[in-house]
Amino acid sequence: MSSNSPKPNNRTILLFFFFFISLIFPFFLPVFVNSSRTLSLHKSKLRFDDGQNLTFLWPLPSQFTSGNQTLTVDPNLSFVFSGNGGRSSYIVEEAFQRYKNIIFKYSSKVSKSGVVYDLQKLNVIVHSDNDELQLGVDESYSLLVAKNYEHSIIGEITIEANSVYGALRGLETLSQLCVFDYGAKTVLVFKAPWFIQDKPRFEFRGLSLDTSRHYYPVDVIKQVIESMSYAKLNVFHWHILDEESFPLEVPRYPNLWRGAYTKWERYTVEDAQEIVSFAKMRGINVMAEVDVPGHAESWGKGYPDLWPSSSCTEPLDVSKNFTFDVISGILADMREIFPFKLFHLGGDEVNTDCWNSTPHVKQWLQDHNMTTKDAYQYFVLRAQEIALSHNWTPVNWEETFNAFPSKLNPQTVVHNWLGPGVCPKAVAKGFRCIFSNQGVWYLDHLDVPWDDVYFAEPLEGIKDASEQQLVLGGEVCMWSETADPSNAQQTIWPRAAAAAERLWSNRDATSATDTNSSTLNRLEYFRCLLTRRGIPAAPVRNHYGRSPPTGPGSCYVQ
Amino acid sequence: MSSNSPKPNNRTILLFFFFFISLIFPFFLPVFVNSSRTLSLHKSKLRFDDGQNLTFLWPLPSQFTSGNQTLTVDPNLSFVFSGNGGRSSYIVEEAFQRYKNIIFKYSSKVSKSGVVYDLQKLNVIVHSDNDELQLGVDESYSLLVAKNYEHSIIGEITIEANSVYGALRGLETLSQLCVFDYGAKTVLVFKAPWFIQDKPRFEFRGLSLDTSRHYYPVDVIKQVIESMSYAKLNVFHWHILDEESFPLEVPRYPNLWRGAYTKWERYTVEDAQEIVSFAKMRGINVMAEVDVPGHAESWGKGYPDLWPSSSCTEPLDVSKNFTFDVISGILADMREIFPFKLFHLGGDEVNTDCWNSTPHVKQWLQDHNMTTKDAYQYFVLRAQEIALSHNWTPVNWEETFNAFPSKLNPQTVVHNWLGPGVCPKAVAKGFRCIFSNQGVWYLDHLDVPWDDVYFAEPLEGIKDASEQQLVLGGEVCMWSETADPSNAQQTIWPRAAAAAERLWSNRDATSATDTNSSTLNRLEYFRCLLTRRGIPAAPVRNHYGRSPPTGPGSCYVQ
């Protein structure tokens, strides 16, 4: 969406110039001749015994050409950072170490003596020194992998990007091109030379995790975020709180986390900061959610005044200023933790019966000449004002839009979930929208197979280009009623990857029905890549999400 | 079994002397008075909102006393190694760093200024400099955690052990005593002072993983081994090969791993060495298995001559010397990887029909005047000879014992699986035995609840003390027909922990039926500890193994 192609520097222009020259003049670099071609993955016949046909990438880059060379990669691959992005180079340097560990995991850690490797150096060029991670940050990158010939200046591996976050995406792509060859015991890049120019289709590519229905230790949240980066997802929507538990420390209201299940199932401010920082190092934003006025019963364990009464405990008491003081306090404390521009205010599934049945609230409604429906609107809008006062853009679940579209702050991002057709209505009224249709993108719906996830389309029903621009992207949701640290990752993966490609890759290249079988093979390859990285991704062909394989067999065909 | 209590050095004798003096003379160290007592976990009422009642250990140490003090632990805890075990101190030092990361995961990484912590130093005393890890290695240790009083020399944390592997067990116990307090944001030890003298009940406490029915990447195997160390299991039985796939590289017969599912689902020699080394650093032996003559169909993909015929492919062809040459070659190559004294030769579930129906094998049987039953015995014994020639102690599944007990090499370790009652028969004939009754200790039997695993008893039916000594221990088995990297860990945990306590802890302290409810709470606590360490252990109260929680709730009560 908002991503631009990186502006190449002179050296890179020269590299790419020679690269394209080589395509035009066969005699110049004969090895490239007849080999570079647009990879037509859905036409290639998959043979799992033939590595050279199998350089799969997930999600599919927007533009790429490849050849038919096989290049060796030096385990001592060196790293050179250049460009104006020096201030933020630590982000790329740390990522380089992570990816080096991934790429050379199964290989000898040192170069073999006497062996001259084709690829010995990785150049990363970053043009901007702004390392602020935000919605719409430039994630585009170019990646060139080509052999260094004696009489050619084409050489090494080059990633060029406008921001460090684009460089991170390029590193992920590079890591997927590098395959350990068990015969030669060497890391190889098949089908070189590669020239990839890539950028995301949508700027918001999210995954939510509900840490209220079950508590997830910080290490597990980090595992989820780490795995998101492998699929180039970029927003971790942290549904921290809900009616069942309030695990987060709020210094201004220190009794709130008494609503945690136990004294250990909690997140300190430092825990949350660490999660945000861990995510930023992987180019992933953290969008926090404080769901009001429903889904908030747990708040009252620390402050019972937030309940309409001790016997009628949801939604939050709309009649008291104290309620909004607490929301203000929570948001003020969270503002210091979560720098992301979007803040989720929930607003879904509000049953207002308690307001009507609790005498003092009912009286308040009468005094203010409000129905419960009016009071719901009043609550949501007042919460929006608090978020806006903290310079946050409010996100609300679609019920708020469905109930009072003309009253919502125009900055509001409408978060679809109930079904199809909401984003078209929201963007028609000028709102931005996030697509999470539960029929396809709720990961706890275990009966949704990978292809239903894959072929879901955030722009479905939106023809107008300017309206399409208002769809920020989409999000798969991991609700935790029956998921916990023991099974969330295999509920998330591989189906979240299907959505990740939908959100990253060109619609045309990934929408034709005849891509189905090759996409399936590519997704199976990615699922096995996840397991190699220690992520317990479930078999792709499962009839139900996260179910076990039905019998012995290869990872690549299950 | 073979573990002895560590021989304390003078300094430690002094420490322990003062500790016990304090118990006898209340005025000497009054804080210990009336507080140190043998912890009676099954009598304590569990309150999850009260950390001080909740210092749970798993598996239960053999002897321990505790008090009622709460001590703070310095995030900059220093580490001092002493004793004769200097040569092997790197094992403890690396473990100290691992455990420091675990203990201070949720805490500030640096000491708070102005705060004086009660526990600032960890002394580890190791008496032996022999770091060879073998069956029966001394895993005993003493652990003293007590406050440093101005006029007392009692101080710090002291772990004393005869071997580095005992010190590792002590570090695990210490890590379980350290609890992060979310209120104070400090790591605390409740119920101090602690004095623990601990050693395992059985010397063989195993977990097997079948990497043939599904391939497990090296990282996943490491995750399994790491988690085993948390439950003080000490033998990783690697069922590498089976009829479905042959993933291991065998330099002497380089076509064998053509029997892998794909060219990526393989283990190089270096991979296997890395697994052995990773396990050793955690005090875990790796027992490799080459299952013959059945369960070996995959061998013939590289060497079809190993099959009786191309249409009748199991068991291995008993009639050819080539078959035994290949076994010799495999074992010779594996001997360089696996230093553990025990080597598993399988021998189970052999259907000899192919031998009878393949003309050249049938002819060979007739020439040698053998029935197929004789040939099965001939094969097993010849394989045993090969293992013995490599100075390996052969382990065989119980079918070999059931079929020809008097012929087996007397060194043979009989591995029970089919049902109860085998170990009593085996030890009565002087064989050693490993207990893995499938009705209780096969983890792929998902209908076995935690308490059936827990109350299984390896010495069931064995009264004679000298015969009891022949039971090396037991093993829980993770077969992979319907398990793979996406779900093995939650199939293994928490039920493997139930077996781990049976194998480590005193029978008396863990066998009474009235321990049931407190044991359940302690196991739930351990399950949550595993999730905190990033291990996806399933809810304890699941009706079926590895099934999801049935609704929202705390980790500690599911």
From TrEMBL, chains A, B:
Positions of transmembrane segments: 12-33
Keyword vocabulary terms for this entry: Glycoprotein, Glycosidase, Hydrolase, Membrane, Signal, Transmembrane, Transmembrane helix
Enzyme active site: E349 (proton donor)
Recorded catalytic activity of this chain's protein: Hydrolysis of terminal non-reducing N-acetyl-D-hexosamine residues in N-acetyl-beta-D-hexosaminides
GO molecular function ontology, one term from the record: beta-N-acetylhexosaminidase activity
InterPro entries, per the entry: Beta_hexosaminidase_sua/sub, GH, Glyco_hydro_20_cat, Hex-like_dom2, HEX_eukaryotic_N
Superkingdom, natural source: Eukaryota
Uppermost EC category: hydrolase
Ranges of residues in domain Beta-hexosaminidase eukaryotic type N-terminal: 57-177
Every Glycoside hydrolase family 20 catalytic domain range: 202-506
EC number(s) from the headed UniProt entry: 3.2.1.52
Family per record: Belongs to the glycosyl hydrolase 20 family.
Protein name: Beta-hexosaminidase
Organism: Cinchona calisaya
